[in-house]
Amino acid sequence: MPVNAAPPATVSISPGSINTAIGGTFTVNAILSGASAVIGYDVRVIVNPDVLTVTGASLSGTLLDPATNNVLIARQQVFPSIGFVRYALVTLGGASQTPNPSASLLSVTMQVNDPSAVGSIATASEYPASIELSAEVVGVGAVDIPVTTTGATYMPSADVGLRNTGCRAANDGFNTLAKGFSDPLFCRIVNTGAQSISVSGVFSFRSLGGVTGSTSSAPLTLAPGQAGEVDSTLTVANANDIFIVSGTPSRLISFQDGSVLAIPGPSSTFKIVVNVP
After folding, report:
1. Are residues 146 and 39 in the same domain?
2. Among residues of the chain, what percentage have pLDDT more than 70?
3. Position 1 in a domain
4. Residue 186 neighbours by CB under 8 Å, 6+ apart
5. CA atoms within 13 Å, Cβ hemisphere of 235
6. Which of 98, 112, 124, 266 could make a disulfide contact with 164, Cβ separation 3.0–4.6 Å?
């Protein structure tokens, strides 16, 4: 970049990370920053239609809102079946607008598809889902304004409908001769959502003696408002050691193809001290 040259403007999806629940809707905006004297732009938003369905797009309240600017809309395309949105427009008469310091170019509303619904073709490998963005911006004199673009990602919320009230071991001071070689582990959880969910627990561990690994619980279904417990065990060697364990309950989302997406919820960490007489 030449000395004293202005940095390129930016167009980004806001918010950049979306965690709306399955079946919910959300709106993203293509935000322009760092540009001046804008007379037109061409914005394209592309999503994975297996995961997200575009339900609408709008120029209302944007930098070149047709309600307050004399503009020609050259492209106005919304194709939910392929996850494609494109709006291209230019002002008439040479009038320009400058973001102060930023402004929306386009709003797009989407709905999150239910992967367990009949007919769904989404798979667990399609999460997180990207929201791709491309844009060209034109200034006074039909001069292209250099821009860099940044998209966004969608992932179901990690903790909506799943609250962790604590994870621990049955014996945090563990004598292998008195107690055996397996220590029960558990996380107590509550479904605070309005629908039944499937959950499981993953217990990752490491020890001062260099032992690492993880163990998981069996799946558990919780009705709305129901509390439950996901259980597993940690098998230790007959040796003095200290284990640091992180228990993470996860919401499980099943897909039509049989794959399962585990969305980690809030975790808690505890220790187990192994004493060998």
Report:
1. yes
2. 96
3. no
4. 167, 168, 170, 201, 229, 230, 231, 232, 247
5. 2
6. 266
